[in-house]
Structure formats: structure tokens, C-alpha cells
Amino acid sequence: MSVKYTIKKIISLIKTELNDHYPFQEINSFVFLLIHHYFGYTKVELQLKQDEEVNDNLAAQIIQDVEELKINKPIQYILEKTEFYSLPFILGQGVLIPRPETEELVDWIIAENNNQNQTIADIGTGSGCIAISLAKNLNQSKVYAFDNSSEALSITRRNSKLNRVKVHSKFFDILHKENAPDKTFDIIVSNPPYVTEKEKQLMHSNVLDYEPGSALFVPDNNPLLYYKAITDFALQHLKKGGKLYLEINENFGKETAILLEEKKFQNITLKKDINGKDRMLRGILK
After folding, report:
1. Span 81-285: which CATH code?
2. Is the backbone of residue 115 left (phi > 0), alpha (psi -120 to 50) or beta?
3. For 83-103, how does the pLDDT look when each residue is reduced to its tens digit (9 = 90+)?
4. Which of 245, 149, 246, 146 is nearest to 194 (CA)?
């Protein structure tokens, strides 16, 4: 005879199974995310539905999700979705999970360019979170999303439809200039790979084991690899007076700013994130 699960029993199971793996608050977050994903209940509704029965197939799926959480698989990859800048995004393991500091970068761009008709390029778009958030909030602008991963571009297109915005997604390898666009832009933005190989040891297994290394890491002896390529691209494809926005490695803020200065950008601003770390940079092309 099979066990009859209720939502209350499922919640108890999740908490018991994850107790030795995660802090209390994080477990409560997983409980809500899983229940909301499968049942659509708000936190208030969840309290009222404790005795609702859960069918065997659904219970088995949630138990499988818990087993994946126990081996540190990120909840965003398990549920294949996340939220960024208050918008829903589909995720796959071929793209990075968007970070809060990237939301700060988007917020900065919107604040400086609101109510303007801009042509924007997002280089290394991944899930499309930057490009789509800008297209949604700067809705008079024309936004292009570039990536060297066909899987990432496929996810970007799905997210564009999900959020009902038009984003022009194109294949482009910034390091090899393959399929380089023949357009010029008012704004170029990028959150490229910037974590050095030696910084791997400081990272958690849920990042190292599941997120795409090609979107994260650069050689120790060339930490500005992508920034050099992006600034060279910007010199050719950014309109005069156009703006270049970058998310950066906190350990190379000054070096990245000097790179922009050497490339004849002006009004260079190095901006700290909410945690007081140098994480964003903006320069204007002379």
C-alpha cells in the first residue's frame, strides 16, 4: 500500500531530508519554491492547504528534486526557472544563473538612459536576462543579444517570448569576431567571463559542478581577456558618445578602468554594488 502524502507531510519530508545540508532559512525558501512551482500557492494559501493530498507522481517528483538539492544542484536548474529584475526566466544548465549584482547593472543602465530611443547590444547574453530586462523597461529601444552558444540563444529566444518583448538574438563569438554584426550601437553592455582559474577554490560546488565554466572562467595570466575584446569591438561598433557598461571582477576594477582609458573612453565611472565591491564600470566613447 502506497504512502498517502499531504502537503504537510511533503513539507516535513523536505525539511527533514535537507536538515543536514542547508541552513534553516534556505530550507524554508526551498519549501516555498517547490510548493509554489508545483501547486501555484502563495505563502498564505500554503498555510491553508496543509491537509491537501498530493498524488503519488507529484510526490515522487518533489522527492527527486530534494535528492538533487542534497547533491548541491541549484534550485534554479532543478525547476528550470528563476526571476530576474522582477521578470520570469527559463533556465538550462547551458547558461549562468543570473546574479543580484547584474540586476544592479541593469538598474544603472535604465536610470541613465530612460525615455531614450537607443540601439543596445548585449554581448554574451546567456539566458538573455540583461537584454530582455532592458527591452522591457526601455521599450522604445532596439535590443540585440549576442552569444557564442546556440543553446544560450535558444533559451534567450524562449525568454523573449515568455516576457513578450522583441530581442534580436544572433550568434557572435567576441574572441574570434566570428559573425560580427555590421551595426553600430548607442549602448553596449556585457557581463563576460571574469573569474580567474585561481579563484575557483573560493567557489562553492553548486557553481563549479553545475554552471557552465565557459561563461565563468578566464586564464590567470589574462584576466581581462574578454574586456580587451569587448572594448576593441566597442571602438568599431559604438557610436560617438555611446556608452559601454560592464560587469567586472571586483579584484580588477582599477585595471579594467585603465583599459577603457587607454582605449580613449572618457567619463569612466567605477561603481560599487550593494555589498561595497567594485562590480560595474561605465565609459563613454569620445
Report:
1. 3.40.50.150
2. left
3. 999 999 999 989 999 999 999
4. 246
